[in-house]
TrEMBL record:
Coiled coil: none annotated. It comes from Mycolicibacterium rhodesiae (Mycobacterium rhodesiae). Gene3D superfamilies: CorA soluble domain-like (3.30.460.20), Magnesium transport protein CorA, transmembrane region (1.20.58.340). It is a multi-pass membrane protein. The chain crosses the membrane at residues 311-330, 342-362. GO terms for cellular component: plasma membrane. Belongs to the CorA metal ion transporter (MIT) (TC 1.A.35) family. It is found in: Cell membrane; Membrane. Mediates influx of magnesium ions. Alternates between open and closed states. Activated by low cytoplasmic Mg(2+) levels. Inactive when cytoplasmic Mg(2+) levels are high. One of its GO terms (molecular function) is magnesium ion binding. This is Magnesium transport protein CorA.
Amino acid sequence: MPSFRALPPSLLGGTRSRPSAPVDARRIHVPVARAMVDCAVYVEGDRLTGKFTHAAALERVRELEAGGQKAFVWIGLHEPDEHQMQAVAEVFGLHPLAVEDAVHAHQRPKVERYDDTLFLVLKTVTYVAHESVELAREIVETGEIMVFVGADFVVTVRHGDHTGLAGLRKHLEEEHQHLALGPYAVMHAIADHVVDTYRDVSELMECDIDAIESETFSPLTKTDIEPIYLLKREVVELRRAVSPLTVALGRFNPDFKDLMSKEVLRYMRDVLDHAAQAADRIESYDEMLSSLVQAALAKVGMQQNVDMRKISAWVAIAAVPTMIAGIYGMNFEHMPELSWTWGYPAVLTLMATVCGFLYFNFRRNNWL
């Protein structure tokens, strides 16, 4: 039977398929709605019913303002990518430098002014529950909240799983009078919420520090210095979140009084006082842990000295029988007491007597 070969695609009138080019994930633009947690329009402190996109919400606010009503939009984003943040920035007119900081995060607490828009960076902290400091790997977890505030909008960008603002938004919606103060009142509420968590976390860390302090100065326990170093590291991380914020909040009264009302400025000064109190407490924790490190090192040194004294005492006791056994192990023919019947028991008695004498003296001098 004759064999047949497959004809090439060119003779069959077809085209040869080509492998598809790899897709660059960075070119895939995810809609802003994927990163949007909530978007609401507020009029005189009341939330309008219905769902809005970020563009439609701002357009609705401008319509209400044209009618003589005070309104603003509050949009919340969670870890947006560059394209999503750029889409929001184009609608609200956000500065590119602030947009870049909001996307990449890892910023120090600060406040920047771009014309009539404020950009506030807050470090969030949360306490990681654990059974004991010795078993913990992390005590404080940090995140970030960036707040863009304009005359009629608030844009919050959150980084981290513990930085949710849903509870705060719900609480503000129940108190219409605070939202009626405008978008800068929302900025104050967020800053006050974050600073309150500083106080809560510092109080919880104080319990850990007290436990380590009592263990360090306990005479019957051996000191492990690793938990102290862990607490020291976590306190330093907490201090980096709190201390720069006091400097940023101090700028509100002289630098931004033309943007917000006197009432909101009073609220911001109250937040500054709370932040300063938290910073002072954390600074005291840092100094306390530094003292604990020194005390722990001194205690470890004393423990090592005690161990070395015990080792030296036992070596001295063991040296006596070792020396006598070494002398009689030289295998010389003429040595004292080799031919004596009671020579072996006498040597053993001598060893036991000298070792017992040394043990009694070392014990009396607290070497053993």
